[in-house]
## 1
Amino acid sequence: MTSQPESNMKLTKTLLFSLAFMAMAASLKSQDLHNSLFYMNPLHMNPAFSGAYEGTYRIGGVYRDQARSVVTNAYSTPTIFIDAPVVMLGKRHWLGVGGLMFQDAAGDGKLQTSSFQLSGALHLALDKKSQKIITIGVQWGQVQRKLKNPENLVFADYLEQVQQGAGNPATNDPFLTGPGGGGGGNPNDDPQKNYSDINTGVLFTSKENKGTSYNFGFSVRHL
């Protein structure tokens, strides 16, 4: 007969191995949002943080603003989240849920990335006093990427024509020209893309005593 600690350890190893395999198998994408105060945006860092605390609910957010003193259209990223531990599963395990919303605007072209994501996390206590907890979290949401001011962008072929002395340079890039070609963009042809996004993560938390605790984990994004 397998003891409870051995069973929990096997479950932990299985979860960690599965997430590590997914991390190695996933293809790399473009750079994600970055917050210097990353701990103020826990659900974006790892969905396993959903409901990973003792309490009723929490609401938080962070606002990133960059280069406003040197460029007209600065880089800005407001983010807000809410999460809560909602359902006890037995005496020591519980389920946490959360929601995250952000909007990132970048540069003169106003490349805007907006998203609303829902997350859930299963928290499994590995001992009777719930001092050590393994968590697996999953997050799903919709992402919209839109270039709001494509006419403000300057592309390589445009610069080449300027350097060659063209009096009225034009670009063939569809971001600037629209479907008809020629110079000047069409504000009604804003490039836009919508897609679903799935993220997952694992978190291990250990409480050593009343004043000392730690956690570590990892997440895999854009599955």
Note: Residues 4-25 form the longest helix (22 residues).
## 2
Amino acid sequence: MQPRDKSLLRRLWWILVIRDASCGALFGRPFRINLDLCDVEMFRPEDFQHDDCSPEFANHPRRLHYSLYQIHMARLSLILRRIVGERFGAARRSPDTVTSLANLNESLRLWSTKLPPEIRWDEKLDGTNPFALCLAILHSHHLILANIGQPAAGSPSLLGDSILCNAAGNSKLVALAARRIMTLAGIIVRKSMQLVMPQEAFPGIFLAEVVFLLAAAEQTARHVAAGERRPDQLPDHMA
């Protein structure tokens, strides 16, 4: 098989792995790809060199960013698969939840530190890089998924035992990650980048909105439990 064909097949494979992880996390469905039965090596920048045959792509200013984005997206998708499996799959019943959570957070931290400067988000250096912006959103999205449902000590949820309902008001990390996503979403709108953003960014924005919605619901439940007027409720003389 020609090297060009091998590179193309390797790229197609990892695109499928990325999509499988994203769809599994978004829709709560089992992964279709069993990586334990696969031995395809991670693709490399060399796998994208054949794209230079297209003059339009070869001269595009984001050409290098695109290949790096795909490679680091594939690596991030492997962490996402672990998050879904350990937090929401059968492994969530493991008694060693604290260690598992620490390992997931450390994996995300290491992934972030290994990002090349070309796709590391920095608005001051390159505020219109859609690939760096998308990866920053996804990093926060994965932090939310890894930590959601981990109530802080002494702060029981007022909304029951649901994994999602326990999360919004009890984890500072979840709240910070959600705020960061919405800040980045504001940059997308402010700079009119909606049409150039990779589609993987939008589930991250959706999850951040869910976190804020749950936080508002928990605040309302707290007011009701204390017999206070809800923040959105009019005074009696105005009702």
Note: The two ends are 75 Å apart (CA to CA).
## 3
Amino acid sequence: MYFVTGNNAKSRIIDITKIARSLDNDIFDSLIGLHAFTGCDTTSEFYGKGKKKTWKLMVEKKMFDGFRQLGSCYFPSSETFQHLEKFVCALYGQNGISHVNEARYRLFKLGNFSDENLPPNKDCLYHHIRRVNYQTLIWKKSFDAVINSPDPAEHGWVINNDEIELKWMSIDAAPEELLQFVNCGCKTGCESNRCGCKRANLHCTELCKCENCNVKIAVLGSDSDDEEDMINSNHEDENLSDDE
């Protein structure tokens, strides 16, 4: 297989087969999934995280499994999701962490609020992986005469007015306390209306600097469990549809 690139005097022919044969098997099997995962015409990319950086991380840490498994079937397994979630944590400098919500929370507490510094939450990443898996499988079937692909609306996209759009999330981006970004610094507890959180009918969070507070909740808590339940439920439904 050859690839013609450039134009006029600068045109050249690249021997794709020769390059493929020179690659390690793990890298070769992971390339197509990595390309879709890092952004293409049909999938989104991670802001500020280019293909070169993700390629280097994958090779250096030998994190091939998730990318290699993409496109094996139309519904990515929970194992594939776990591998890729751990990779995203490492991509944002959170080595040793396996959950993007925890990585996102840690970075947020450090004051890294920009899109470039925060990974997607688990729900958003789940839909991204579904799109990536769908696209990778289509590419892997490119030599088939007919591809009977399922409705993309079941794989991370939505159909609005006959147009396909990305389905970014199924749940709120953050707990209500963070969305309204209310925090307090009460010195004598937070039970009176002098507390900004109480006036807003919100619980105090770990972002507050209040003292002697008995109504503070952890930001990384029930919402993460809700996402986990939602993802596991979706996997169960998809497995049932496969059996049918």
Note: The chain is about 45% helix and 5% strand.
